[in-house]
Description:
The protein is mainly alpha-helical and 259 residues long. Helices cover 51% and strands 5% of the residues. It is built from eleven helices and six strands. The longest helix has 23 residues. The protein is elongated, with a radius of gyration of 22 Å.
Amino acid sequence: MIELRSYFCQTYYKHEYYVHKFQDLLTWKGDFDELWIYDEQDAIEKFKELIQPYNSKNPMIDTENDNNFIYLCNYLNDIGYYIEEFPTFLERPTERWDLSYDKVRKKIIERDGYSGKVAWADRSVFVENLKFIKKDKHEISDDVARTLKNVSTRSAEFNNMTFDEQLEAICNSIEYLLKPHKKSDKFIVLDYSDTEGYLSDEVVKDYRNKLECFRHSTKDDLSKRKNYTDEQKDFLISYGLVIIDYVSKKTNNNLGGNI
């Protein structure tokens, strides 16, 4: 769980626009100023909820949440997201109402080619379908990118996946590369001697076993996932990509032997 006002205080200074426009939020003591999120997907859902057209039944809309909106913008921008329909907004946010009404309305008019009133329902659907894309954080080869996309249940680009999806894709990719024969339970054993001891069959097995909880959805697996922080997940993703890159090159060169 992450509290976004605290996150803002710890990270806003990294982004010049936020320093210039929103430094006063450091001392804000108003109501509705504390906002907790579970993970980045939860942040995206709350962001969309905040910019939905006004609805008195929605407490996020029916209260003053302008500060929380900026905290969400800062968080999503800081971890590398942008909105496909409004590519620079998270880097240089204006006001919640400006995005929720003015910018969304103009974008719908441009898309549909008409002028005049935009229906409440059209704005609501548009907001719900906003595409949040994570900038390419991990540089990966074309071969590795194809493998990761192929094992994705929704054929997603790796850098557009959530942390949990990335870890699931990495775990599935390792099995895909080391277990090429579907009818066999046997994995390929590679020669890791050129890694100076940093990789071995046992290391790869242990890593893959740790990620099993991201492949399944039992109560026990979901509980295990919660024990990982975003920072730990980010490290495991970077480390996993090293493993996949190495294994991919070895298996493509047929340097392994069946157990």
